[in-house]
Write a structure and sequence with these properties.
The protein has 227 residues and is of the alpha+beta class. It is built from nine helices and four strands. Strands 2-1-3-4 form a four-stranded mixed sheet. Helix 4 packs antiparallel against helix 5, helix 4 packs parallel to helix 7 and helix 7 packs across helix 9. GO terms for molecular function: glutathione transferase activity. InterPro entries: Glutathione-S-Trfase_C-like, Glutathione-S-Trfase_C_sf, Glutathione_S-Trfase, Glutathione_S-Trfase_N, GST_C, GST_C_Tau, Omega/Tau-like, Thioredoxin-like_sf. Its EC number is 2.5.1.18.
């Protein structure tokens, strides 16, 4: 399959868009990145994802694949001969990876976003406690899944690494805004080391937004409307 037929519709700041971009980089698949404008939806996006009308969308030979984690699995299966598998080898381990990926999207990330929206110290404390509780669960999940190796997926970045790691830039922005360290060497030592390894990986580094640039962008999208 010709790699020049691969395109990703997305936006640079979206953690969900990072997922297919990292997956394609891991498989050494060249692709064209079609940048969407913030607050607008292109005709191509609406045509390619008429159900959810959301990014990311992978276009492969003009056929659209939608939803970030589904795209990662598609990339893993389509280019299975290129690079290590992103999903664990056993059915049980694959089920566990998918379970934690769903937990991150449905529970952990909404809590993280709530920190930036929290009003007042009490609300902020309550949301911080939720995120830290989630981090403790993910610290244990990392130790269980990695079995002493560098990544959730073992020796190489995999499905769950991508599912969680795509949020690290936003996590840093949240730490800056809240003045509170969420992943550190004391509370989550394994995750702290994993995050550093993940962000420095050659497949990740080119698509991971700079914290300062993302922080400026966050100010715009989370700006409170004038009273």
């Amino acid at each position: 399959m010709a790699s020049d037929e691969v395109k990703v519709i997305g936006a640079w700041a979206s953690p969900f868009v990072m997922r297919p971009r990292i997956a394609l980089n891991l498989k050494s698949v060249p692709y064209e990145f079609l940048q969407e404008s913030f607050g607008a939806k292109s005709e191509l996006l609406l045509k390619s994802n008429p159900v959810h009308k959301k990014i990311p969308v992978l276009l492969h030979a003009d056929k659209p694949v939608c939803e970030s984690n589904i795209i990662v699995e598609y990339v893993d299966e389509t280019w299975s001969a290129s690079g290590p598998s992103m999903l664990p080898s056993t059915p049980y381990d694959r089920a566990i990876a998918r379970f934690w990926a769903a937990y991150i999207d449905e529970k952990w990330f909404p809590s993280l976003k709530s920190i930036l929206k929290a009003e007042g110290e009490e609300e902020k404390k309550a949301v911080l406690a939720q995120v830290e509780e989630g981090n403790a669960l993910l610290e244990k999940a990392f130790n269980d899944c990695s079995k002493g190796k560098p990544f959730f997926n073992g020796d190489h970045i995999g499905y769950l690494d991508i599912a969680f790691g795509c949020f690290l830039a936003w996590l840093r922005v949240t730490e800056l805004a809240g003045g509170h360290k969420l992943i550190d060497e004391v509370k989550t030592p394994s995750l702290s080391k994993w995050a550093e390894r993940f962000c420095n990986d050659p497949a990740v580094k080119p698509v991971m937004p700079e914290t300062a640039t993302l922080a400026e962008f966050a100010k715009k999208i989370f700006a409170k409307p004038p009273a």
